[in-house]
Amino acid sequence: MSSPAAISFLVTGGAQVEREVFRGFSAAERAGFYALTVVTVALFFAGVYRLYRKYRGSGSSTADFIARIRLGPALATVASHATIRRRDGFVGMAHSLVFWGFVVLFLGTATIAIDEDFVQLLFGKGAKLLVGNVYLGFSFLMDLAGLAFIVGLLMLMLRRSLFRPEKLDYGRNDREDGASERESYRKGDAVFLWLLLVIAVSGFLLEAARIAATLEAAPFEVWSFVGYGLATALGGALASDGAFAGLWWFHVVAVFGFLAYLPRSKAVHILTDVAALATRDPAAAIVLPVLQEDRGIIRRAEDFTFRQRLAFDACTKCGRCHEACPARVTGAPLSPRDLILDLREKVNHGAGQLEFFGRTRPDVGSEQPLSGGYIASETLWSCTTCRACVEACPVGIEHVVDIVEMRRALVEEGSLPDSLQDALRSLDEKGNSFGESARKRGKWTKALDFEVPDATKEEVEYLWFVGDFASYNATAVTGTQQLARILHAAGVSFGLLYKAEKSAGNDVRRVGEEGLFEALATDNAEALEKARFKKILTTDPHSFNTLRNEYPRLGHNYEVVHYTELLLELIVRGALTLEAAGSRRVTYHDPCYLGRYNGIYDVPRQVIAASGAELVEMPRNRDNSFCCGAGGGRIWMPDPEGIKERPSENRIREAVELGVDLFVVACPKDMSMFSDAVKTTGNESKIRVVDLSELVLDAMSSAEQPQLKEAMHG
Ligand code: SF4
Ligand code: SF4
């Protein structure tokens, strides 16, 4: 086996194995280079400071930003590119090549600078890091990185030119009058990619020029395999000192120009993405920020926090949120991407910063209010708070929080759709959005052939927090009754709050009515205080979310389970015996507030499997599920003007394509929304919407519960 020294000798042929950085440069040229370095570094840090001033705004939220920093997870995400690779392997691969190529080249260049300028100072004349085998390995790695960098860039350029997906077309569905044009974005994208390509290619040409001059004397340069290949091919043209010096300065100016440009351009995302990921809140939108004195209503772009303003700059315009948004897909005047870019432009304008290639919103400087003016009310009210945008965003932007905070301003000034106003009034006066008497909340129990205990009078294991829809909506009540019968048959100890229950307030909070949410939460907490129970059981994923995740912030802590979880537990411990009820092909819709908000994806699928049904997944499933359109208070509002179809109709069309018999839901609002959508799309003969409880009921051992099945289907 050859020793490293032998390998070195064989490859180098005994020549001096190192690189001369300033070959043939005069002292004045070297001084010029160092002066340029100082100017570039100064410009870079001036740009970073300018960003800091922009994000700091009034200065109140810098501390919050620092408190949110979690560098470890952010670096892991950046290193693995997990959020970019997800759902788009091609871009993930291209971006990984560019990113890791850039990192290695940057570190390599820094190593060359240290070797050239500091090693001799520290360790004496003649000391060098990059010599011998170290230099050879270094050369190979740098060329590999450069090649990866170029391949990645070309992949991204190809995608943007030849295979440009719809999400990158920058079209916006809230403008028909040409009030916004996105030519500046296209130019910015192109300049960014071309600048990087020019840097990479000029770097290789410079390397080739350096090697070309000593091609025969330094055969070890073959380790710089790209530069060596180019030198061999173009040797004559590159071998002169003039060519070397020209390429040297061209490359340096391109690199320095990029560094100075970086904090002032699209390239800023190289910095802001890491910062946004490091301060990403995993509970973003799941737990909304409390309206406090130091985080008041957002009335101007300056009122956004440090982190929010920074996140606007982190947007890479990748369009993933735009593609996933049910409002955008169905033609409502909202795109989360456009919203973030509009806000970015507004913040930049407020900070007196120029857009490099011009502004896209001519009205960016007008005095109109932020909510309901610069960002139209219809845009803000179109959001279903489904969280698909937050889930899709590779850089941790929290669109839903921005939207809800702007909605709070609309609510404060009373700019609400009439129907929403009515629903909120009803919630305030009666504790439910149906305008029904609180006494009727338990009316659905009358159809049962057993009594459901009042948990304020009798101790139970599960306090069933039924929720408004599951209590009052005629379509959803069927599922509620089915579940009650199953629980009764399985011997579960459960009770209700009856008239003391009020809306949990999840959607009230998401329309921006913070005061009413707190009032509802206080009333519910008082009612729960009087009840005796071990756990809260919920039907509605929206109630589940706020009781489980938001009530604790108000000091009300409970163990909360969703009924799908309880059903599975009953099956697993044998309290429910299921047997296959015929061959049924079903699909399952992940409710946003159960799946994306609370990560419950497998449990309902396990219940479906236990029922013996064959599950056929829709193309958009799990964290990529497509919202029914009811969340975020949308259920209380009319359809946005000009929509092509409702999100629920879009979803039913997706399910019908599968040729399944049943569309299984685990949310009372879904039951109502999708049942309507089956009718409005004329698919009644093709598919039926059922609650998961019905599937379980049908599969329950008929020998064990004959009377139950009779009651259900009789
Ligand atoms: S939460 Fe849903 S509806 Fe709202 S902007 Fe995001 S993706 Fe669109
Ligand atoms: S907000 Fe996030 S997902 Fe949307 S375009 Fe920007 S980077 Fe992409």
Rg from Cα: 31 Å
Mean pLDDT: 92
Bound molecules: iron/sulfur cluster
- The helix content, as a percent range, equals 40-55%
- CATH-level-2 architecture of the domain at 571-713: 3-Layer(aba) Sandwich
Largest sheet features:
4 strands, parallel
The residue ranges in which pLDDT falls below 50 over 5 or more consecutive positions are 1-14
CATH hierarchy, class of the domain at 571-713: Alpha Beta
Strand order across the largest sheet: 2-1-3-4
Query: Tell me, what's the shape?
Result: elongated
Using DSSP, what is the number of strands? 8
How far the N terminus sits from the C terminus, by CA atoms, comes to 84 Å
CATH T-level topology of the domain at 571-713: Rossmann fold
* Broad structural category: mainly alpha
Number of helices: 31
Question: What does this protein structure show overall?
Answer:
The chain is elongated. Among the domains are: 282-412, Fumarate Reductase Iron-sulfur Protein, Chain B, domain 2 (Orthogonal Bundle), CATH 1.10.1060; 426-562, 3-Layer(aba) Sandwich (Rossmann fold), CATH 3.40.50; 571-713, Rossmann fold (3-Layer(aba) Sandwich), CATH 3.40.50. The protein has helices spanning 4-12, 27-56, 62-67, 71-80, 82-85, 89-117, 119-123, 132-161, 183-212, 225-238, 241-261, 269-278, 306-314, 320-324, 326-329, 336-350, 377-381, 388-392, 399-412, 418-430, 468-472, 474-489, 506-511, 514-530, 541-550, 563-572, 602-610, 647-656, 668-680, 692-699, 706-713, and strands at residues 462-465, 494-496, 535-538, 560-562, 585-588, 614-615, 662-665, 688-691. The chain is built from 31 helices and eight strands. The strands form two sheets. It has a four-stranded parallel β-sheet with strand order 2-1-3-4. A four-stranded parallel β-sheet has the order 6-5-7-8, with helices on both faces. With 714 residues, it is mostly helical. Strand 5, helix 27 (602-610) and strand 6 form a beta-alpha-beta unit. The site of one iron/sulfur cluster has 15 residues, from helix 15, helix 18 and helix 19.
